[in-house]
TrEMBL record:
InterPro entries according to UniProt: DUF2897 (IPR021550)
Organism of origin: Rheinheimera pacifica
Native organism taxonomy: Bacteria, Pseudomonadati, Pseudomonadota, Gammaproteobacteria, Chromatiales
Keywords, alphabetical: Membrane, Transmembrane, Transmembrane helix
Domain of life the protein comes from: Bacteria
Region (Disordered) location: 30-66
Pfam annotation, one family: DUF2897
Biased composition (Polar residues): 43-66
This protein's name: DUF2897 domain-containing protein
TM regions (residue ranges): 6-23
C-alpha cells in the first residue's frame, strides 16, 4: 500500500467517525422550551413589519396564481 492512499483512507475514516461522534453529542443537547424562549425575547421585540400587507411600489404588482 502506498502512503498517499493510506493517508486518504485515514482522513476519510476520521471524518466519518468524527461526524458520527458529533451527531451523537448533538442528540444529547436539549432545546429550550417555547414559553421560556418567548419570555426571553419579549423585551427584545422591536417593531415588526408585515410585508404581505404593503401596497406595491410603482410598477410592481403582486404575483397572481393564474
Amino acid at each position: 500500500m502506498n502512503w498517499p492512499l493510506f493517508w486518504a483512507l485515514t482522513l476519510a475514516f476520521g471524518l466519518v467517525i468524527s461526524n458520527l461522534l458529533l451527531i451523537k453529542h448533538a442528540a444529547k443537547l436539549k432545546m429550550p422550551s417555547s414559553p421560556k424562549q418567548a419570555e426571553g425575547n419579549k423585551g427584545n421585540v422591536t417593531k415588526q413589519h408585515n410585508t404581505t400587507q404593503q401596497s406595491p411600489v410603482h410598477d410592481q404588482t403582486p404575483n397572481s396564481p393564474e
